[in-house]
Amino acid sequence: MSGEDAPAEQQNAVDQKQETKPAEEPKAEPPKTEPAPAAAAEATATPAATTEKVPEEETFTYRALVLTGYGGYDKVKLQVKKGKPALKAGEVLVRVKACGLNFADLMARQGLYDRLPSPPVTPGMECSGVVEAVGEEVTDRKVGDKVMVLNRFGTWQEVAVVPATHTFLIPEGMSFEEAAAIPVNYITAYMMLFDFGNLRPNQSVLIHAAAGGVGIAATQLCNTVKDVTVFGTASASKHETISQGGVTHPIDYRTKDYVEEVRKISPKGMDIILDPLGGSDTHKAYNLLKPMGKLITYGTSNMLAGQKKNLLAVAKNWYHQFSIHTLSLIQGNKSVCGFHLGYLDGEMELITQAMNIILDLYKQGKVKPRIDSTWHLEQVGDAMRKMQERNNIGKVILTTEPMPEEEKKEEPKKEDKKEDKKKDDKKKDDKKKDDGKKEEKKDDKKKEEPKKEEKKEEEKKEEPIKEEK
Fold first, then answer.
1. Cβ distance 202 to 234 under 8 Å?
2. DSSP class of residue 114?
3. Residue 60 backbone phi and psi in degrees, to 5
4. Which helix (H) or strand (E) holds 196?
5. Helix%, strand%, coil% for the chain, nearest 5
6. Residue 360 above 90 pLDDT?
């Protein structure tokens, strides 16, 4: 920081010298014919002009979340950056209002997502905001336009420079939070269901993580087609919500075998399966397909176990990686597709076509993002934790609006409460262990009681023998 501040200090010294010169010069010069007020105004204007000439790069600052290394939630830090980002031809500068959090961001934090450059880097694949500046050759965007953004990375900050072709105008009535929730989830769901899946009336679809961002988007898009039966996996506490959202058959994957549950209702299997899990679950998905069924795999979330990279989970996922011979595909009359939005950043024409359809559906009231919760940039760790622990129903959003001072004061108290809870949990665990030990001792005593009784009985039997002797 001191190295960056040094030029600013030198500039201030120069400014001071420039300011003192006009004040000294009038003493040496003879009186001028101009009125004194005008001369004073001119002298006052000189420092102001000098101030205006200070490069904006030295005064422009913005906050950005930066992945400083791979690991836990604390590896994403809020930093202040200096200097206004430069615009190239075809780019726009967006003043970010809200950002979307995706599972890929969680994997990127652990070094499991190859589309994010090495740290230090600002994550984030989507955001919404207002165009603040446009570069040369930009004709279809202007300052003041409200836009949503889809980019490979770099959206978790207060200002983002992106290609104009990566922006989409926000429809009337859509909030910045909703706009930030659309690009990744809805484009992913749409392209899988309709471009790969060719979804048609009277078909069946299995959606894993049906309460997540992609899951809810996929469910809503299925409901735009007549008589589509949706099977959705989610923990039991989320079943009521996803049922209201259009899932026909919710399945609790934590307590039941979802393959068996699907077979009970649809013995022939599924027409389309969306698989974000990977590993052994991809094998199960393929075997659940009907003839002419389609499996679309788009993630490996089974690799994510804990805050930091779990090598055992990664190894297990790779060991169970799905592979199949083309002859098996031919004989089974099935298809397997792979989808990765991060590798389609060079296909913006395809993405724009999908987005235009999605926005039309939004205007018709047929799709609408569900926002689970909104967090300040300062709370990114808590936001990531909520998503990684699968406690969200819908989209987790980050807002660039600074956290109010009152909330900042509350944060340490929350941390203290968390620590107190951990201590209480530890005490409870210790108490359980102690109680367990006491129970064991009681059981041991109970076991010893019969032995003591046996000894007494033996002693009684031995008494007459001693008397006879």
1. no
2. T
3. -80, 125
4. none
5. 50, 20, 30
6. yes
Q: What is the DSSP string of 349-413?
A: HHHHHHHHHHHHHHHTTS--PPEEEEEEGGGHHHHHHHHHTT--SSEEEEE-SPPPHHHHHHHHH
Burial 242-262 (b: 16+ CB within 10 A, else e): bbebbbbbbbebeeeebbebb
Sheet of 270-275, strands arranged across:
249-251, 229-233, 204-207, 270-275, 289-297, 335-338
Q: What is the pTM of this model?
A: 0.76
Question: Which stretch of 97-101, 352-356, 405-409, 420-424 has the lowest confidence by average pLDDT?
Answer: 420-424
- What is the bridge-based pairing of β-strands 91-101 and 146-150? unpaired
Tokens of 12: 């201030």
Return the amino acid letter for 125. M
Q: Is the dihedral of CA 354, 357, 361, 363 positive or negative?
A: positive
Dump pLDDT digits (tens) for 183-214: 999 999 999 999 999 999 999 999 999 999 99
Q: Can you tell me whether residue 93 is helix, strand or coil? A: strand
Q: Is 224 exposed, middle or buried (0-12, 13-18, 19+ CB in 10 A)?
A: middle
User: Between these two residues, 42 and 76, which has the higher pLDDT value?
Assistant: 76
C-alpha distances out from residue 275 to 148, 184, 406, Å: 27, 16, 43
Q: Are 259 and 233 in contact (CB under 8 A)?
A: no
Assigned token pair, 348: 């913006």
In whole angstroms, give the CA distance from residue 263 to residue 270.
9
Question: What's the Cα-to-Cα distance from 198 to each of 22, 118, 225, 293, rounded to whole Å?
Answer: 76, 37, 11, 10
**Which two structure tokens, joined as six digits, stand for 164?**
């104009």
**63, β-bridge pairs:** 80
- From 68, 60, 17, 132, select the one nearest 380 (Cα to Cα): 68
Place of tokens 């819908």: 394
From CA 270, how far away is CA 275, in angstroms rounded?
12
Least confident segment among 186-190, 230-234, 316-320: 316-320
Amino acid at 5: D
Cis link prior to 171 (omega < 30° from 0)? no
**193-221 burial by CB neighbour count: b if 16+ within 10 A, else e?**
bbebbebeeebbbbbbbbbbbbbbbbbbb
